[in-house]
Amino acid sequence: MDDDPSFQNLGNVAKAKGFNPGLIVLLVIGGIVLTFLIGNYVLYMYAQKTLPPRKKKPVSKKKMKKERLKQGVSAPGE
Prior knowledge:
By secondary structure, this protein is mainly α. The chain has helices at residues 5-16, 21-50, 61-71. The chain contains 3 helices and no strands.
C-alpha cells in the first residue's frame, strides 16, 4: 500500500504548498489593522496643522462668580 503512487503524490503536494494559510490570513489582517492605525495617525497630524484650534465654551456668570469668590475678590454689585 505504501508503494501506491497516488499516496506519494499527495505527500509531495503537501510539502510544495509553502505558507500556512493561517499565517497568510494573519498577515493580511495585521496589514489592514496597521494601515488603519497609520492612516489615522497621518490624518490626525494633518488636522493638527491645518484646522484652527477649537473655540472654548464661554464661561457662565455663575462659574465666574464662584472663581472670584475663591480668589477673594467680591463680585461686582455685591
